[in-house]
Amino acid sequence: MNLAADPSWWHVHGETVIVTIVGVVATIVVAVAVAYRQRQTKILDWHLVTDEPIMTEHAPTGLTVSYRGESLTEPRIAVVRIYNAGTREIVEEDFRQTLTIQLSAANVVQVEIPKHSDNFLPKGSIVIANEGKVHVQDVFFNRNAWVELRIMADGGQRGDLKVEAVFVGQTRAMQQGAPQPTFGQIARAFALVTVDAILPIPISRR
Fold first, then answer.
1. pTM across the whole model
2. Helix, strand, coil: what percent of the chain each, to 5?
3. Are 83 and 174 in contact (CB under 8 A)?
4. Of 71, 78, 84, 87, whose Cβ has the fewest other Cβ atoms within 10 Å?
5. Same domain? 34 vs 108
């Protein structure tokens, strides 16, 4: 006999089954949340959004590009996203080595911040140094905060970037990679799937 297909069985036991399932799911979510919060990490990572030349092989002969009167021979635009991949905020006083973007064999012409998360605090300044280095000073990364930097450079190879920083309590060195879903996003998706699975259960009411 298939009890799950018996309306009378669901009429008697349906609510108990649903409460049990919800209770188990809630327990798992709480346990995972507690474990997650206990693992406090301080991590900054970065992601190369784009790195493309301004001029392509299809550009007409004789076309030149200049910026503020300076002629550029191999201009390119790179966009780098730097984000807090840990569970703790990183304040400006934490940095022992300035957040630095290094472009090999390229001259950095201009840098700007086109966008950032609402909880990123751009308190500091951007300094363009020699040898293709960009220093981002006095910044505050709240949890899940991110910032994008748009860099105009001249020369170098596509993708020849690296981003480095040293700060107090750093869990590991910075790594390149796309941002991963946050625990909150995973928990919300899990909850939606769970509710989706529970709601279609037919319960006969008499």
1. 0.70
2. 25, 35, 40
3. no
4. 71
5. no
Question: What is the chain's pLDDT, residue by residue, as a tens digit (206 residues)?
Answer: 555 556 665 566 666 756 667 666 667 766 666 555 556 899 999 999 999 998 877 778 878 888 888 899 999 999 999 999 999 999 999 999 999 999 988 999 999 999 999 999 877 788 888 789 999 998 999 999 999 999 999 999 989 999 999 999 999 999 999 877 655 555 555 555 554 555 554 544 44
DSSP H stretches of helix in the chain: 7-38, 183-198
Contact yes or no for 49/114 (Cβ under 8 A): no
Please indicate, yes or no, if residue 18 is contained in any of the structural domains.
yes
- For residue 186, the tally of other CB atoms under 10 A from its CB is 14
Domain range for 25: 3-38+186-198
Token representation of residue 116 = 């950032």
CB 177 within 8 A of CB 48: no
Q: In what order do the strands lie in the sheet with 95-103?
A: 126-128, 133-136, 95-103, 161-167
CA atoms within 13 A on the CB side of 110: 12
Q: Which residues pair with 162 in a beta bridge?
A: 102
**CATH number, domain with residue 82:** 2.60.40
Closest by Cα among 150, 54, 58 to 108? 150
Angle, helix 183-198 to helix 7-38, in steps of 10 degrees: 170
